[in-house]
Design brief:
Shape: elongated
Helix content: 40-55%
Oligomer: single chain
Number of strands: 11
Largest sheet: 5 strands, antiparallel
């Protein structure tokens, strides 16, 4: 997302903001300000008329704006003043993103006997319950919904296999999360943490 900053007296002021929909313009005649809509303006007009200019890109995963910035009158951009984010904060954010990604891959499910099985908490409860029943009764069978209007009949052996496949899928997801987590924890440079790709090695 592009960020913008107000420029006053040749310098950026305040913190970067998303592209404004209105700006305050001071009338030359009486010095009074009026708020006008600028959502339809291009960046040139936004800067020339509204005094709001694009902020040069910076890595938001490594730096946080500290307020103000240097205005480049030639490029019509503002280089925001930034401070480095502490490495442990960068690490915590990366680990949180990894956990969210693992969850998405986990509940996204797995393929079983030609059908895709999702694995959210409700799915897990149903699968584990069916597996338990199948372990206790070799004649147990269940019509399993795999898609709207599509069912397959699973006998006890298949239900046990389905439960085993669920366990294998969940275990593989957590094992891969641990592999990536160990790598993230081992890094001693914030840039390495931010650049690390944890989207590899997941079960399909």
């Amino acid at each position: 997302m592009s960020l913008y900053m107000k420029v006053m007296d040749g310098a950026g002021v305040g913190l970067p903001i998303s592209r404004p929909l209105t700006v305050d313009i001071v009338a030359q005649q009486d010095g009074k300000s009026a708020r006008v809509g600028c959502g339809h303006w291009d960046d040139a007009a936004l800067g020339d008329i509204g005094g709001v200019y694009p902020v040069a890109d910076f890595d938001a995963g490594l730096y946080t704006p500290s307020g103000g910035g240097v205005f480049d009158a030639e490029d019509k951009t503002v280089t925001a003043a930034v401070e480095p984010i502490p490495i442990e904060d960068v690490r915590a954010a990366k680990l949180a993103a990894l956990a969210a990604y693992r969850y998405d891959r986990e509940v996204g499910g797995f393929d079983f006997s030609g059908a895709h099985v999702t694995a959210d908490d409700r799915d897990k409860t149903l699968i584990i319950g069916a597996r338990t029943m199948a372990k206790e009764d070799s004649e147990y069978a269940k019509d399993w919904k795999v898609a709207p209007g599509q069912y397959v009949t699973l006998d006890a052996t298949a239900l046990i296999a389905l439960g085993d496949a669920l366990e294998a899928h969940v275990s593989a997801c957590f094992a891969n999360e641990k592999t990536h987590s160990d790598a993230i924890v081992a890094f001693e440079d914030a840039a390495d943490i931010a650049a690390y790709d944890f989207t590899t090695g997941w079960p399909t």
